[in-house]
Prior knowledge:
Blueprint: H1 15-36, H2 41-57, H3 59-75, H4 80-86, H5 90-105, E1 113-118, E2 124-131, E3 134-139, H6 144-155, E4 159-163, H7 169-185, E5 193-195, H8 202-209, E6 217-221, H9 224-233, E7 246-250, H10 256-268, E8 277-283, H11 287-300, E9 304-307, H12 309-314, E10 319-320, E11 334-340, H13 343-353, E12 358-362, H14 366-375, E13 380-383, E14 403-404, E15 412-413, E16 420-427
Parallel strand pairs: 3-4, 3-6, 4-5, 7-8, 7-12, 8-11, 9-10, 9-11, 12-13
Antiparallel strand pairs: 1-2, 2-16, 14-15
Helix pairs in contact: 2-5, 2-7, 3-7, 5-6, 6-7, 10-11
Amino acid sequence: MNATPPLNLQEAPTAGELAAAMTALGRQARAAARDLARVEPGQKTRALTAAAAAIRAHRDGILAANARDMEGARARNLSVAMLDRLLLDPKRVEAMAKGIEEVAALPDPVGVVTAEWTRPNGLRIQRVRVPLGVIGIIYESRPNVTADAGALCLKSGNAVILRGGSESFHSSAAIHAALVEGLKAGGLPATAIQMVPTASRDAVGYLLGSMQEYVDVIVPRGGKNLIARVQADARVPVIGHLEGLCHVYVHRSADVGMARDVTLNAKMRRTGICGSAETLLIDRDCLATHWRPVADALVAAGCELRGDAELCRLDARVKPATEEDWRTEYLDAILACRVVADVDEAIRHITTYGSAHTESIIASDPQAVERFLHDLDSAIVLHNASTQFADGGEFGMGAEIGIATGRIHARGPVGAEQLTSYKYVVRGNGQIRP
């Protein structure tokens, strides 16, 4: 099979060069997908284990590539949150390798019989998991997505075409090279995991609009503008991931220390990830006891508080919030804060302004907890736990491609199992339909 035509990162390819390169990627991915559908689980596990070893072996090269990306990102004056997403260090490289090993250790989802029954006429019917086929993944900033996405797609028997952000181009290319090394060591086609070989934005448009012959589904992972473009322009199905406008609600029955610690972690552990809390809601009945400990911890950690009129009167450190603050994914050390009357008002606020991503209630009142968990239709709802647990690894999935906030096919963390579909296998002994 012909190799993907090389493209120069520094020069925008012509339309013809881009079409040739992207078509080659598509053809190679389609062929690899057919091969992967027949691969035994053990072979995929060996390839993933080898890929994790290659990540560790090439750590210095990966970090050098990341340093190059970080230099370019600083020159472009990217935000602190974006720089944090982009940064790799030895600990994060090791986490990538461990994530791949965790995916390798998961049960293989392909071929699993999820239901079976026998009809009165003797037909035996099974519903069996199968790969989606070829997945296109478009993502920004975070180079670790290269490892997570490649591993999950391979585990679920899918070929994948990766298009990372221009700011992480060199980091992602170095990680991708390690994944390919693992594929070869496992005796699998190197084209099972491919990267778009140019940072040209035109490649995104081509992948979305001109690859339906080769690509079965698109998964975007990034900011609001990227998601909106993908959903508007894609000619194939999309597993959507909207912005992470996550909420923490402190109910009047919450333990004060727990409310303080969970809120602090939800906002400040890492402000630049989609599971970071962006709005705090607090019951009016517990303002006198709960607000100060929570606010003191946040301010001490360097968080800017923006609140409604009631909180501004109560605490001089709180800046006035605007209507736009309730709709903003800051990805920064800023938290919008609002007083509510009860759980019903908290739910109304979240339903009005949220993105159906992740919401947490801190409470000990079982009725309030169940009302919150039952009535909110977000992808992830938590009780007495930080929103930063919105992560496939924390869910035991090894890794994730993203948090899907739609209602079709996959929802919440998208792991290997969520990257499969199913077919029906029907066995008979000569039945004909009257």
